[in-house]
From TrEMBL:
<protein>
    <recommendedName>
        <fullName>Integral membrane protein</fullName>
    </recommendedName>
</protein>
<feature type="transmembrane region" description="Helical">
    <location>
        <begin position="64"/>
        <end position="85"/>
    </location>
</feature>
<feature type="transmembrane region" description="Helical">
    <location>
        <begin position="21"/>
        <end position="44"/>
    </location>
</feature>
<keyword id="KW-0812">Transmembrane</keyword>
<keyword id="KW-0472">Membrane</keyword>
<keyword id="KW-1133">Transmembrane helix</keyword>
């Protein structure tokens, strides 16, 4: 779920929102909501004694935390990439300098 939120929201937020702070904050809120939801879902399945629990009892899931942190960081990179693409696609008028007018 956190990967889906990252793929679906990070780049468009960076592309469409002018404020870098607003894009990062919106992505972080959406990601953290999905992270809490996903963690609760996986934890309840582990505590309930499901057929294939995500976490073993008594074992701290460090690999889950590392992967979640990596996805979070990649999302911020995608927000920055969206902003970079938007800045490159905007057409800026060419500024004339004195040397270009003489030629």
């Amino acid at each position: 779920m956190i990967a889906a939120v990252t793929v679906l929201l990070a780049f468009p937020l960076g592309y469409f929102l002018r404020s870098h702070l607003a894009a990062n904050t919106t992505y972080a809120i959406a990601y953290l909501w999905a992270f809490v939801f996903q963690t609760l879902y996986l934890l309840l399945d582990s505590l309930d004694g499901g057929d294939a629990p995500a976490f073993d009892k008594g074992e701290f899931p460090t690999s889950y935390g590392a992967v979640a942190l990596a996805i979070f960081a990649v999302g911020f990179g995608m927000v920055a990439a969206g902003r970079w693409v938007r800045e490159r696609r905007t057409v800026r008028p060419r500024q004339h300098t004195a040397s270009s007018l003489v030629e």
